[in-house]
Amino acid sequence: MEEARTQMKTTLLVMTLNEIDGMKAIMPRVDRSCFDQIIVVDGGSSDGSAEWAKENGYQVYVQKKAGFRHAYNEVWPLVEGDVVVTFSPDGNSIPELLPILIAKMKDGYDMVIASRYLGDARSDDDDIITAFGNWLFTRTVNLLHGGHYTDVMVIFRAYRKALAHELALDREDAYELPERLFGTKISWEPLLSVRAAKAKLRTTEIPASEPARIGGERKLQIWRWGASYYFQFIREIWFWSPVK
Q1: Among 94, 140, 151, 244, which residue has the least CB neighbours within 10 Å?
Q2: Which residues contact 114 (CB under 8 A, 6 or more apart)?
């Protein structure tokens, strides 16, 4: 078991959509030697983000269907790692924390979250609405599903690649109704947090402050995403159960 953890392969997924300024500032700080594979997953940038990534030697995948979860579903067959680290190059994720996430996964965890609210960590990107929303969502998941999280929403995390299938994150039925009800596309991180708690997986967090974003436009759809995720949290009480 110890040898398997030491030899586990890791893939970094860098999620981009018009993040050229952030890419230029953040990606040179990523230690490529920490990863067996790095894929820049581009949502159809028009500012040269994908071209810059290719010029700098990164594997690039341009998604065909809009939305974070579609990006994950499309790129998943290309992922070679046993562990996936999802990362935002817009300045919100601190690249120097990447080796800490990987080291924690080697301790045998199923998922390690880079929490914006653990210990002395803080989010410089929060406003009063998003700060309250993140608190409410985390509190709800902990109360309804037995979690022990301080941050259930953040993209910056590491987890076993196999969880996408084991927790049925890759199934359309987990998202179809809330997306239709609220007219949006959502990601799978919040549902990953919920189902990892329901399945009683081994999870932990590290403190990870969130600096303000660098350039680009904030894509957050506060009300539509918030409503969709909260709908999922409530529905998950009876909607999905871990395989015995």
Answers
A1: 244
A2: 93, 94, 97, 101, 151, 154, 156, 157, 205, 206, 208
